[in-house]
Each structure stands twice: as C-alpha cells, then as structure tokens.
Amino acid sequence: MKKRLFLTGSMGWGKSTAIAQALGSTACRGGGFFTRRQLDSSGKLTGFSLESPDGSRGEIFLDFTQEKPVWNLSVFSQLGRDLLTDPDAPFLVLDEIGGVELLCPEFADALEAVFVRGTPCIGVMKGTGPSGALIKALGLDDTYAHSWERLQAFLSSDPDTLLYSCGQFDKHALALACQWVQEYAYDGLFRSV
Asked: How many angstroms separate the CA atoms of 125 and 164, rounded?
C-alpha cells in the first residue's frame, strides 16, 4: 500500500465516510483534519468547518448563512497549518484538500512540507466536477484553478500516492482505506491483533 491514499469523486458519494469508518477510533491518533458539514435544525447546509481528528479543535471556514457564501481563509493559515504540523502525529487525515484552502499560502506551504517529509496521509482530494462547482459557486478565479491543477498533477504522478477515483458508496474505496489504516495508522502492537 502506498504511503498516501486519496479518494476522489463526486460529492456525497461516501468518500469521507469510508475514511472515517476505516479509521474508527484510530483517527484520534492522527494529525490533520476532517471537513465537517454544518447543518441547521432543519437539516439545511449552513457551512463547513475544519476539525481536528480528535474533535478538540475546530472552526467554520465557509458560511452559507449570508446572502453570498463567505469563507474565512485565516482558519487555514492558523488552525489548518497547525493541524498539518503536529510533530507527534504518526499520520495525517486530509479530509478534504483541493478547495479554497489552496488560496492560503501558509496552508499550501505546510501541505507541501507534509509531502516532502513523506508523512503517511489518508484523505479526500476534490475531483474535477466538485472543483468546477466550487469555482462557480464561490466565484473563484484562475488562481484557484491553477493551484488545484498543480495539486492534482502532483498527486497523480507521485509514486508514493494512490489517487483512487470512487464510485458511489464504493466498497473497494472502503477496502483500500482499511488496508491503509492497517499499514499506517496502527503501531506495531496493534498490527499483530
């Protein structure tokens, strides 16, 4: 199994769910972040937050409660960067990358450093369709599109990365995530169990 596993595909197809299910309680041992949907009492999407795998830290970075969507890049320059640079984390959860965080230089530099260090990572990479939807919904310019294309090209060509294109509720994606967890998220004591 390659050191980095990223699931990609359409929104709502269970990519993040597969990763969370495969990690189970071991997610708390890792660094990085989960992207969480924020819902109001009626179930309507109100935004997205960035949260540490153990749930101890989190901030809303995209707010849909205003007339136009509002994003807060400082969440990535501070909290996001901090979650990527935890020196004690044996692995990182990156759920998800390829969004507005690419417009934050501090976060982009920290993400590049993660790849250079060779830290094991499991996560979701925003696919072509979702990145195009993000450009349209948030009115992003070519800067974002070029950043996304560079990240996509790197992950696609990197010999230490498996970029797996998922189908809806893809059992193979879950199996890959479980295999990755067995290899990288458990230490030697747990591997023999």
From this structure: 9
